[in-house]
Fold each of these.
Amino acid sequence: MTRRPLFVALLAMLAVVTAACGPNQPADDDDDGQGAPAGSPGGTQAAAEVSGELFAFGFSYENGDTIAKSRVDVFTEANPDVDVQFSESGFEAQPFLAALQSGDPPDVVNIPRNILGSYINRGVLQPLDDCLAQQGMDTGIFREAALSQTQVDGTTYALPEFFNTRLWIINNAAFEEAGLDAATFDFSDWDAIAEANQQLLQVEGSTINRIGIDPKIPEFFEMWVRANGAQIISEDGRESLLEDPAVAEALEYTVGLVEAHGSAAAFTDFRNTWDFFGANNQVAADQIGAWPMEQWYLNVLAENSPEAEITGVPFVTQEGDITTISDGNSWAIVEGTDNPDAACAFVTTMVATDTWIASAEARQAEREEEGLPFTGTYTANSEADDIIFGEMVDLSDTPAFQDAVDAVLESQDSAFAFPPSPAGEEFTQALQDAVNAALTGEDPAAALQAADEEAQAAIDAAAE
Amino acid sequence: MTAQSAAAPRRRGRWTADERRQALWALLFISPWILGFVVFTAGPMLWSFWLSFTDYDPLLAFRGRETQFVGIDNYTRLAQDPRIPLSLWNTFYFTILYVPLCTAFGLGLALLLNRVGGRSAGFFRTAFYLPNMTPAVAVGTLFLLLLNGQNGLLNQVLRVFGISGPSWLNDPEWIKNGIVIMMLWSIGGTVVILFAALRNVPNELYEAARIDGAGAWKQLMNITVPMISGALFFTVVINTIASLQLFTEVYTMFYGAQQGQSAASDREALFYVIYLFRNAFEFFQMGYASAMAWLLFAVIMIITFIQIRLSKRWVYYEGE
């Protein structure tokens, strides 16, 4: 064999390697990785003036429901020159990190509000104040609890999307059988809850047939802490308050509700047998007395077991004041976007009042076609909610669900939210560890003390 | 020219033009592998070694913040982090239980397969290997149902024999054992390797043993095991390494979307690689996670080295 074919082959391989490296190069050689500064001049944000490509991470259009699709449609119809692509998946930290490191980061991201703090603290998200000013969007339309999760030091970094809250859902049949009145039961009285738990639960040996009261810990533990007059973290998210004796008291109480069923292991095993999203769900199958739950579950019950009788009442403190945790996703612009104008137009459109109304109308039409009632959409935009629940939702044929929806709406103004802590993930993990340790037999106060130290260390390290 | 002079070794360090050309071609043909190794294995390993001495945070790096060299801080932290001994213990416990069981069950199934002839042989080989084709995430989800303490299939079967099964997914005492059971479902790879080794054991050895009056057990221990000891050693080594790196199935069962569903899992199902992943991708402490990765690398190296040293006492290679 001569040298020429060898040389040609080496050249060909070099070409293949070079080509393979191509897509990893930054799209713009001048891009310093920082992208355009916040509020960079982009002219007006009038719909007709934005164009180009836009990549949205943490959102699926293809697999999205009517509410998701119709809102995107509102944007694309108003901005036909913008080519919007989606990651077609929910938010996950690992692929998001990979996308950021790719040299061509996403333009916008749909991200849970509970973890926003870590990303804001690291400067990954662009401040939106200039964008909001350009779009003429008033943040006053957003619910306070939701907005508080998206702001640090008065600067808005994301726009809240949905607004999930919790309420007590009561299985009327179980309450009636136990001689309790679902309509008048006092959930501010913790002794009464513990007593009702004993009356409602059904245990045969090591087999549980019905849970009395499920406190839903560790997920909703923070609500029980609020109900006991305390907080788990300071308003600015920089001080762990887990060492507060009132927190330990709430933990001891809620663990007691679970242990009344035998053990946390048996309790969880039984709960995991439920047909949660099916017609034979835990209410229809009489497997629970009452539990705090996200409001969207009312829709699941209405659709799958409309005959099951429930009562929905707000979660209350021991003083009788309504309280509930709120959470949901939000839309933010990623620092380094090369299309800040379109990104701004997109995030504001996705949460605008008109967009929500258009999506609610689309869902209402869809439900009418299916012969099902429209139960509403709980958004973080109170202006939109007023129209949706004031003018569009009509559940007069199912008064129990109407009452439950009213309880949700009644709770919304009393909602609180986890603040944008620089170490939100670590804090949540430490708290969850403590609750789980208590559920598996550790002393609640000792578990919380250890969690407090760990959480504070993580916050301090992240805030450096 | 004599045959001897033709076969005489060339002088050291001197390559003929033809040899050089051949070497270049050889290099060219293996260059895709070399390139892949450098780009996807050696490069990331060296990069992670460097990261383990820094405070690298991928989000801050994205914003242009310079990564700081922190010396051996990350390694010092490993010694102080209470979750490191916990996650290492969980991982070792699993490995110590899983590897011998996997080898024993794998050998047992391979022996059974070796006795099956005719058309059904192909069916059984496929059936035993099929679980390996199931995605790990699906296996994790499936076993959430099978191992449920109240109405899972496993406990229902145990109830038939009058045994009240434990809470495999929620009882701190039983979680790791439940994970071992789940992983034993996917031993098809081990079965196939041992089955292939069994097929190579000469029949004459068994015939001679039978003539000498050796029973089945003696044949197994004195012929089968020594003759397939190379394959056994290989499966023990790769299963040990895989066990020490256990991640997907357990993460699917107890973390991610399932986070918080089992009170005991935060401690009992915290395997080393899961904790590493959480530090890297949930807490963004990539420097610390890299130090964790190198500690695991060292642990695997030491265990594998010990296994190789011990193998000299029991592994028989036909060519030696």
Amino acid sequence: MLHIVNKSATERNSLDSALRMATKGSALLLIEDAVYAATKGSVAAEKVQSAMADVQIYALGPDLDARGMSARVLDGVKVVDYGGFVDLVTEHNSCQSWL
Amino acid sequence: MSDMMDDMEEGGEGVVKKFMFVNRKAPHGTIYALEGLEVVLISAAFDQDVSMVFVDDGVYELIKGVNTKGIEVKDFSKTYRALEGYDIEKLYVEKASMDARGLTEDDLIVDVTVLDSNEMANLMAEQDVVISY
Amino acid sequence: MKIGIMVSEGPYNHQASDTAYLFARNAIEKGHSVPRVFFYHDGVNNSTKLTQPPQDDRNVVNRWSKLAEDHGVDLVVCVAAGMRRGITDDILAPGFRISGLGQLVEAGIQCDRLVTFGD
């Protein structure tokens, strides 16, 4: 299953909820303001890093670029473009957007 | 009528998918809870395997003792009781979300199944369609 | 693969409609089909032809109309949500139509995936 989070982890709890419900082997894609959680030095980075053992974390590159965050991405986070976003949706049997 | 509906009539008949509606928003502050409920009611007409789950602030949608007169807004909390009449009987609440808000099953307006986070995660993972608001 | 989309927020205020559009366009470019986009909640506000963004900005509404024209995407505006917000047939941009919530459930049944974009 693919979990999609679009809100900043320092504003909302949607990243926490997504990580709580992400089963081992599932994927989590950070888009829009959620991409800040995938950057070094963010208070949310620790959560993302500890989740990586069980869940593959992705971040949407164009959203990182638009926010000036591309050079700060945490090791282990895979950066994808919109085509990669589409692939993630098709490769997983379902998806949930944590609005 | 759209081409898609034509496709559906040709090929989609008899398909039963697992639909999960994920409620994560408190009522009244935003319209998501009310309009989300409207989707669930409509889904009943399609004979799908529907689950409704309440996570995070979504558990506040089910609270007893609501009085919306003062804010001059319709009290739709009673509609949750009508779900059974639409054969929507799979209502799940995450225990951690209730605990974090000082709530128990006794505070809720309908009978629900309480799941721990792992059980909720597994239930979500086995769905075909997850719709969230 | 058939990918259905739900958009739950209006244009400009949130990024949801932009992300949904770019996702849809890329899905089509990759050879998938997007049979339907369902506009719900404030998402119904994506459908009005009265929108006039500044000339140096993207036109969110027109982009959806063009996607519908070029690729046959069915742009459905929820009737109940639309009526609440003053969206009627007279102000619909090309490619949009107003219909019931059943169209969302149907997209969930008919499509291989359903992806929601919102706040």
